[in-house]
Design a protein that fits this description.
Helices cover 53% and strands 16% of the residues. Strand 4 and strand 5 form a beta hairpin. Helix 2 packs antiparallel against helix 6.
Length: 504
């Protein structure tokens, strides 16, 4: 007896993956609306943060230029003094008034120190003449994060005097203080702008994209749960964008699926009804077979002549009764293809379809030795359906007294046998073409079920071929039955083949 405690499965192997999934759910919500909100805030905040470097650089440049201009005015006062020399007290007043510790100018390549106080450290340089964005934008961060008690050396072009440049040295503590205050105000404004812009963008996108997508998603979920739920039907908003097209396509898809489901339900009901009568039908056919065997013993020559036809009809009826349940489950018996003489098959199908020389006649362009690869019983069903439909269409035309003809020929194309059936009836109505091969939907005549062509096409496709409406018009319809394989005729074809009229 196995130990109930023992367990060979590795339960802990899946834990990291589950933990990772939980982490992703925590940090990345699953709803489109919440994701849109997060992404909107992030993108707007990123856009606002991108303006911080140029804004801080502009503020610092303005602050430094103000010090440079004040110092430049003070330097002009020095040059107006006798011998361009001022006392130490006057120099201190000028420097303190300008907020600097050194003023120098350069003219014609000669640098002159006009005002100066002792320096105990080497200042860092900010050259306002440069146009390098990287250097200009990085200067404010150098001031903010460079440390306490530093000096800044500023070089700029003079405004109130001639010269190559004017140079000042000033402590950066006041600049840092002003810069921090400006940064706080700018971040506050950025946060407010981000909130307002993010809210506007989010609400706009939510109204134009997310809510319509949620409406489409809910309609799809409700339709999957219950196609008959009235709330599952989506009402298109007539928008001309992708959302509008998605709504319109979903509406059409729901309509098509409802029609398909209704058709399938009718087929299921048909299969259930057939299942109930199948047993009785088989008993009736068995009784008919027994009666036909007794008739064979009568010795009447007319009975002997008609008996083979009766036996063939009974055999096919028994086979159909056995397979009808499979069709009710939308499953046809797999074909058992083999060589089938096409001319004999067409003649037999024409008899069962009711074609005759007095009404709708059969014309063939088929040699007796020509054959196709098909299941004989299923090919018979296909041909009977097509020939019966052609006969009923011709007989339904007023003024023709049920007269007409159906022409059948055989061709070959790319390893396939092509059986062509053309009639001179009124053609298939345009309203029926779209659903021509759909069960219960493709009938072109009043009171028809539309099963004949659906069955015929299903049988053809079961062979690996197909059944299509090749031509259509007021002069008649042409159906093309394509069957895989080509069988060479056993006898040479007749020279100068002509249409052959079937005799009764």
């Amino acid at each position: 007896m196995a130990d109930p405690v023992a367990d060979d499965s590795p339960p802990l192997a899946e834990e990291p993956d589950k933990a990772g999934q939980r982490a992703r759910r925590l940090f990345w919500p699953g709803g489109l609306s919440s994701r849109l909100l997060i992404l909107t805030v992030l993108f707007v905040a990123l856009a606002e943060l991108l303006i911080l470097p140029p804004a801080l650089a502009q503020f610092e440049e303005g602050w430094l230029l103000e010090r440079v201009r004040t110092a430049e005015v003070a330097s002009v006062g020095v040059e107006l003094a006798p011998d361009q020399v001022v006392s130490s007290s006057q120099a201190s007043k000028l420097l303190n008034g300008a907020g600097v510790v050194l003023v120098a100018v350069q003219s014609d390549g000669v640098r002159r120190l006009l005002l100066a106080s002792p320096l105990d450290q080497t200042p860092y340089l900010v050259d306002l003449r440069e146009n390098n964005l990287a250097s200009v934008w990085s200067a404010p961060f150098q001031t903010l994060f460079g440390g306490e008690g530093r000096m800044v050396r500023v070089v700029a072009k003079p405004r109130y005097r001639d010269g190559d440049f004017i140079e000042i040295v000033a402590p950066d503590a006041p600049l840092r203080k002003e810069l921090v205050g400006y940064l706080i105000r700018l971040l506050t404004l950025t946060a407010l702008t981000t909130a307002v812009a993010g809210a506007v963008v989010y609400l706009s996108l939510n109204a134009f994209l997310v809510r319509p997508m949620q409406r489409i998603t809910r309609a799809m979920e409700r339709f999957r749960a219950d196609p008959d739920d009235p709330r599952a039907h989506i009402q298109p908003s007539n928008r001309r964008d992708e959302i509008g097209r998605a709504e319109a396509e979903l509406d059409r898809m729901q309509a098509d699926l409802r029609a398909a489901l209704n058709s399938r339900a009718r087929l299921a009901a048909l299969g259930e009804a057939v299942a109930k009568i199948n047993h009785d039908l088989r008993n009736m056919l068995t009784s008919a077979q027994i009666a036909s065997e007794r008739l064979a013993l009568s010795g009447d020559p007319r009975v002997a002549q008609a008996l083979p036809r009766l036996e063939r009809a009974l055999d096919r009826a028994v086979t159909l009764a056995s397979d009808v349940l499979a069709y009710g489950r939308s499953q046809e018996t797999a074909p058992n293809p083999g060589p089938v003489a096409l001319l004999a098959a067409v003649d037999a199908a024409a008899e069962d379809a009711g074609l005759s020389d007095e009404g709708v006649r059969l014309w063939t362009d088929i040699d007796p030795g020509e054959a196709v690869s098909a299941d004989s019983e299923q090919l018979h069903r296909i041909l009977v359906n097509l020939l019966r439909n052609a006969r009923e269409a011709i007989e339904g035309v007023e003024g023709r007294a049920g007269k007409g003809e159906v022409r059948v020929s055989l061709d070959q194309d790319d390893g396939h046998s092509l059986v062509r059936l053309a009639d001179n009836g009124p053609g298939v109505p345009e309203r029926a073409i779209e659903r021509l091969f759909l069960p219960f939907g493709g009938s072109a005549k009043s009171g028809g079920t539309g099963l004949g062509l659906a069955i015929a096409r299903e049988l053809a496709q079961g062979h690996g071929g197909d059944l299509t409406l090749a031509e259509n018009g007021p002069s008649g319809a042409v159906f093309l039955l394509r069957l895989p394989g080509v069988i060479e005729p056993e006898t040479p074809p007749r020279t100068g083949r002509r249409p052959r009229t079937r005799t009764a």
